[in-house]
Design a protein that fits this description.
By secondary structure, the chain is α/β, with parallel strands linked by helices. The chain folds into two domains: 168 residues, Rossmann fold (3-Layer(aba) Sandwich); 204 residues, Phosphoglycerate kinase, N-terminal domain (Rossmann fold), CATH 3.40.50.1260. Helix content is 35%, strand content 15%. Strands 3-4-2-1-5-6 form a six-stranded parallel sheet, with helices on both faces. Strand 10 and strand 11 form a beta hairpin. Helix 10 packs parallel to helix 11. The longest helix is centred in the first third of the chain and has 15 residues. The protein is elongated. The chain binds adenosine monophosphate. Adenosine monophosphate binds next to strand 12.
């Protein structure tokens, strides 16, 4: 277990907190979606209540080491001020840390909150430059990481800084580690993993790791066609990762060896072209004719997968079952989301597209945990140690 903000004395101490304020902006530079800011509030409010002097920091977008003011965190400072009912101190320094920023940090009182400028104005941030990490650390007495979405990156603000300060997690990272960690290491059984999406290459290491942990595994989405190819089925013009067919075959063999059921779709909804309104039809997995592309799982697969979900004690889901962005090919993804929502299982949704799908279907409130980090949750499920979590102190 990693230490959290609850394990340290905060009164009067300066806490520098890595948040994920990587929010989308609209054409007028206004914040288009405040979800990530709202997600950071419990930790910020706790620090305020405890009488800490709080210094927040984040990246936003890709200013690539330049102080490009289109990526200034000023809109985030304004939004935060409105949420916490207190003016957030914001000094817009192109260097992120300079004399004015140090003076502002020194002037903070108990319960005050300050926000630094976009960390990626400095190239050393993503390079994990020791000098920049020390500049950040010198502003504070304690380091709090609450940005799960960047915890798989060893950057100055996510990893390097912990060399200079006692390091603990905020509530967001604590929840991610608890749910993802328990789902994989101490799950209520049977443990089911449902993996979909298009990029097989990203998911193969996850499948490999999960085969040692799960009781069964369901495959869907575009990556199913690489597995179909490995089984000797025709895949028409469906998305196919030809160089991963051999790996897919070895995963099928590994699953068989371990006695872990690895289920592939038994049918699909296919279309003549990659278009919501294209002519469509249902085919069995081994019966896709030339000139058709599979874009969703079919009704027989939905019934089988829903049944598996009903039996699960814990279900981990990463990746949509079809091209859910197109309403005519969203049925399989929606059905899986609904089956998860209706199940008694502990349901853990990996970030990225499956999280977006669950939101889109209005089912987010019915899941036990929706990860805030796509890449980070995948790496976690691969069994890799995330640098931004590894640096935190053990309890
Ligand atoms: P990933 O980033 O690998 O999780 O892939 C997510 C994307 O996979 C989504 O944008 C889906 O539209 C896409 N996808 C899912 N199923 C298919 C499919 N059968 N053919 C093409 N793309 C798909």
């Amino acid at each position: 277990m990693k230490k959290t903000v609850k394990d340290v004395d905060l009164r009067g101490r300066r806490a520098i907190v890595r948040c994920d304020f990587n929010v989308p902006l609209d054409g007028d530079g206004k914040i288009a979606d405040e979800t990530r800011i709202a997600g950071a509030l419990p930790t910020i409010r706790y620090l305020m209540e405890q009488g800490a002097k709080t210094i927040l920091m984040s990246h936003m977008g890709r200013p690539d080491g330049e102080a490009d003011m289109r990526y200034s965190l000023k809109p985030v400072a304004d939004c935060l001020s409105a949420h916490i009912g207190r003016a957030v101190v914001f000094v817009s320094s192109p260097a992120v840390v300079d004399g004015a920023v140090r003076a502002a940090a020194d002037g903070l009182g108990e319960g005050d909150v300050m926000l630094l400028e976009n960390l990626r104005f400095r190239r050393e941030e993503t390079e994990n430059g020791a000098g920049f990490a020390k500049e950040l650390a010198d502003l504070a007495d304690i380091y709090v990481n609450d940005a799960f979405g960047t915890a798989h990156r060893a950057h100055a603000s996510t990893a390097g800084i912990a060399a200079y300060l006692p390091a603990v997690s905020g509530f967001l990272i604590e929840k991610e580690v608890r749910f993802l960690g328990e789902a994989v290491e101490k799950p209520r059984r049977p443990l089911l993993a449902i993996l979909g999406g298009a990029k097989v290459g990203d998911k193969i290491p996850v499948i490999e790791n999960l085969l040692d942990k799960v009781d069964s595994l369901l495959i869907g989405g575009g990556m199913a066609y690489t597995f179909f190819k490995a089984e000797g089925f025709e895949t028409g013009s469906s998305i196919l990762d030809a160089k991963s067919v051999g790996l897919a075959a070895s995963l099928i063999a590994k699953a068989r060896e371990k006695g872990v059921p690895l289920r592939l779709p038994v049918d699909m909804k296919a279309a003549r072209s990659f278009d919501n309104d294209a002519e469509s039809a249902f085919f069995d997995a081994d019966g896709l004719p030339d000139g058709w592309m599979g874009l969703d799982i079919g009704p027989k697969t939905v019934a089988l997968y829903a049944d598996e979900i009903k039996k699960a004690g814990t279900a981990i889901w990463n990746g949509p079952m079809g091209v859910f962005e197109m309403p005519n090919f969203a049925t399989g993804t929606r059905a899986v989301a609904e089956a998860l929502a209706a199940s008694g299982a502990v349901t853990v949704i990996g970030g990225g597209d499956s999280a977006a799908a669950v939101e889109q279907f209005g089912l987010a409130g019915k899941m036990s945990h929706i990860s805030t980090g796509g890449g980070a949750s995948l790496e976690f499920l691969e069994g890799r140690e995330l640098p931004g979590i590894a640096v935190l102190q053990d309890r």
